[in-house]
Amino acid sequence: FSYDYLKCVTKDFANVLGQGGYGAVYLGVLPDDTRVAVKLLNEGFPQEFDSGSNEDKSFLAEVATLANIRHSNVVHLLGFCLEAPKHLLVYEYLENKSLDKVLFEPTTPLTKWKTRMQILIGAARGIEYFHSYSGDRRVVHRDIKPANVLLTADFHAKVADFGLAKIMDTATHTTNFTMPGTVGYRAPECTIIGDAITVQADVFSFGVVCIEVVSGRRLVYVEQQGRTRVLLFRRALELMLQEEYMKLVDERLAEDGIDEDEVRKVVRVAGWCLQEDPKQRPTMDAVVALL
Predict the structure, then answer these.
(1) What is the pLDDT of residues 62-115, one digit of tens each?
(2) CB of 39 closer than 8 Å to CB of 23
(3) 60 or 137: which leads in pLDDT
(4) Rounded to two decimals, what is the model's pTM?
(5) Which positions ≥6 away from 149 have C-beta within 8 Å?
(6) Sign of CA dihedral 19, 21, 24, 25
(7) What are the residues whose beta carbons fall under 8 Å from the beta carbon of 267, sequence distance 6 or more?
(8) Residues forming the active site
(9) Sequence-ordered list of residues with C-beta below 8 angstroms from that of 162, at least 6 positions apart, any chain
(10) Residue 7 assigned to a binding site
(11) Does residue 30 sit in the same domain as residue 147?
(12) 72 and 215 in one domain?
């Protein structure tokens, strides 16, 4: 796509759908009335490349990787624009936006447990696809969080935002760039810039998402009876050790629809994912099988 064309279909980038670490996402409407999500990447993306020409080559390589991804739980890339210094990605538009909005915004609470379970399983399958990407290279997402789990009209989950994703060589399963991810969802081993990043970092992040889906609370929240800020997954681990799984459940969930066995299963899977030692965490295919 040309930049002028995307500027036109987004009405001069008027309707912001969201803001991520690498740029904003805007609503666009094509001439056939198809809605699209246009991600305008920050100028200078990606920051780790030295020159304009190398940057453009790297951008095109990333687009080529995205274009090869076809999975029902991964947001579909429709096209791109590369008119220096502008870099844009055009994705399919998903009606229910992101998981963080339906979980954390009081006007749109997701009150059915079955729907939350469906979303978790879909997201897990999308991440599993990244980790078992066919070919001689793998993809690590590096920023799994509710804002990067988008939802269709019927709450089918699709993992989005490859802004931090890098191709991994299967010989080493590692890559080194800037510090990945979002604070709170970032695995302990990812806190030092330049350290090797493995697929197990995504597994840790997914564990945090599991706890947020069960509880309907953000990672850090304030207790009703005081000012104490509670780190959610640590609280979850405490309750798991006490086998008090239902104390984590979102009070807004319809009581008659809660499956206690499934809640117990999700919290236990989350605890496994949140192991400090990445070698002790499950693979995503194991997570999918358990869920």
Answers:
(1) 677 777 778 899 999 899 898 877 888 899 999 998 999 999 887 777 889 999
(2) yes
(3) 60
(4) 0.85
(5) 98, 99, 119, 123, 157, 158, 159, 160, 209
(6) negative
(7) 210, 211, 214, 236, 239, 240, 245, 248
(8) 143
(9) 62, 65, 66, 139, 141
(10) no
(11) no
(12) no
